[in-house]
Amino acid sequence: MDVGLPTTPLQTTQLNSQATWHEIIWKVSDAGLFADSKHFVDCPVLRPWELVAADWEQLKVDGVTQEALKCFIASNFGPPGSDLEAVLPASWHEEPPAWLAGLPEEEARAFGAAVHQLWKTLCRKVSSDVLANPDRHTLLPLPQPFIVPGDRFRECYNWDSYWVILGLLASGLLPAARQLLTNLLGLVDVWGFVPNGARAYYTNRSQPPLLSAMVAAVAAATATAQEESRGREGAGATGVNGNGRAQSASGAGVSNNHSSSNSTGGTETETLLREALPRLIAHHGYWTSGPKLVRVRSSAGGEGGGAGSGDGTGGGQEGGGTGERTVFELSRYHAELYEPRPESFREDLNLVEGAGLGPEAARALYCDIASAAESGWDFSTRWFVGGDSLAHTRTTQIVPADLNAWLYRTELDIAHMAARLGDSATRDAFAARAAERAAAMDLLMWSDADGCWHDLLLQPSPAPPSLRQATDGAATAPPPATAKAVEAQEEDAGAVQEDGSAGVYPTQQRAGVYASNWVPLWCGVAAPGSSRAVAAAAGLRSSGLLQPGGLLTSLCRSGQQWDAPNSWPPLVHMAVEGLERSGAPGAAEAAAGLARSYVAGCRAAWGATGHMHEKYDAMVPGGVGRGGEYVPQVGFGWSNGVLMTLLRKYGA
Ligand SMILES: OC[C@H]1O[C@H](O[C@H]2O[C@H](CO)[C@@H](O)[C@H](O)[C@H]2O)[C@H](O)[C@@H](O)[C@@H]1O
């Protein structure tokens, strides 16, 4: 079985006896021993793999009955989570953050204090055996403690960590936020990118690129903390209670913070930026090369317009623009997995079997499904092409508006950080890349009619991912006949590049109302107060997504979790800040209204269930989310982070 790139000790061991591992996971899945496929792949191996493999061979001789399989698992595998230890977050303080005392309502103060306490229940470190015997664990050996989402999500997640970090900062837990960030930056050293989550089976893909926003948030909070500490010293005050107001920071916040003078917060902040900058550049390289890079033409136009003027774009501000350019480099999601996801093995097999697909189509669908997981939006009608079921997921044929907006933000963050460190060559190179990306987004993705940036569909469709391995350099080389098929298909489309790289595709705007269509507003792709930003704020307000219980993910009730009626905390947060930053008339009030409906919904659900939930029901204040391939989860890292951030800023 293709469990990803063979670079973790566990994967190397498994790949060395690939057939055995494949048989085991298949049989365990077939036997239906565990309700959740993720259960088994989270189990640590208790003995050297060679002994486990020998046991398995004996079991096959004796007969793999249900009972024998249970015994085999009990003697060779530990329970999921047994290789993690609960620890207190660094600099933990029982007392809630000081700002809570300023909230007028006692019940709101109590709720905030209760959510603050949840960090204690979600902080983990890997056990010493993960560090000593990494070949026995699917957990990646993170050196520092981290916050997990909760429930079945026992490990550290990539994009979740951005909102976790904001929440830790709102709770006055800067050292814990710093540790979490250190882990993620360390993953870039090992992998060249931050994987989906800190598990071996997540290393075939990443998740939305918010690493620079995390660095910016921690850097801003570090600078503020230093400033406050100096202030206290100056005033002769003593003691640090850890509750000081850390400056609210996000991707967009970095510009101001990093371009400001270095009269305060210099040394520690700069040390962090110096550590982070090369890793951010490496991570950006991962997102802008290989199969993730797509070249698109500007000529195709789109159903919503597409002939943008560049008015108000960040690109315009930075002195970019489309000029005579007709080919642009954008990015897409593209996992490197052509088999079922180990953590959803049964679900993926059932999907492919149910669709009656042959081997090539099956490999393509596995890749598109894993690529949807890479998007964080697993799963959604957003990725369906040419049909309305999960089997129509074609993530790799789509150039997403949110992904490119986050990369725009990353490019600007890198430029600002480089400027702060005196590296003008890097500053100029990344400012230029940001300008080009913003110009392409304005030209190709912006819709005057809808007041938003739409995803793009590559037209005609590129070769299926399983065939693309031939040209995109993924793990397994296909037979020569397959490589020829790719070439033929791209030649038919007139799309082969002289340098032999993947073709240049005309694109068409995707229809559909998705919360992701307004992520560019949060990322500053339209300058605050510009006509684009004003139109985008109006587009969001009239989209139908803003509802009494929060923000609908889409207008479509598909039964998938990244569709209606679910309201996801990270999307709520970006919509609130996007509206606020737009500078549009009435947008600040709309932002406050959405923020308060989120807080009120969480509070009502907390009252009814005693939990913070992974997702909520946008139509029913206090209702919880549903749908998708696993049962709704509680805990919950990013929900708590968004709650603390919005409660602090907007009150109850
Ligand atoms: O096990 C199925 C999938 O679960 C994860 O996705 C969901 O939870 C993540 C953690 O909160 C979140 O980041 C993601 O947006 C959710 O859809 C996991 O990330 C997937 O890769 C996995 O296949």
Features of the shown structure:
three-stranded antiparallel sheet; binds the ligand OC[C@H]1O[C@H](O[C@H]2O[C@H](CO)[C@@H](O)[C@H](O)[C@H]2O)[C@H](O)[C@@H](O)[C@@H]1O; mainly alpha; 6% strand; 652 residues; disordered N terminus; 4 domains; 24 helices; three-stranded mixed sheet
Q: What multimeric state do the chains show?
A: single chain
| Count of individual beta strands | 15
Beta-strand percent range: 5-15%
- Count of alpha/pi helices: 24
Instruction: Please state the average pLDDT score.
Output: 87
Strand adjacency order, main sheet:
1-2-3
What is the structural class? mainly alpha
Q: What is the distance, rounded to the nearest whole angstrom, between the alpha carbons of the first and last residues? A: 50 Å
* Domain module tally: 4
What ligands are attached or bound here?
A: the ligand OC[C@H]1O[C@H](O[C@H]2O[C@H](CO)[C@@H](O)[C@H](O)[C@H]2O)[C@H](O)[C@@H](O)[C@@H]1O
| Biggest pleated sheet | 3 strands, antiparallel
Shape: globular
**Low-confidence runs (pLDDT<50, min 5 residues)?**
1-6, 237-264, 300-321, 469-496
Keywords: Glycosidase, Hydrolase
Region (Disordered): 225-269, 297-324, 463-500
InterPro entries: 6-hairpin_glycosidase_sf (IPR008928), 6hp_glycosidase-like_sf (IPR012341), Glyco_hydro_37 (IPR001661)
Biased composition (Gly residues): 301-323
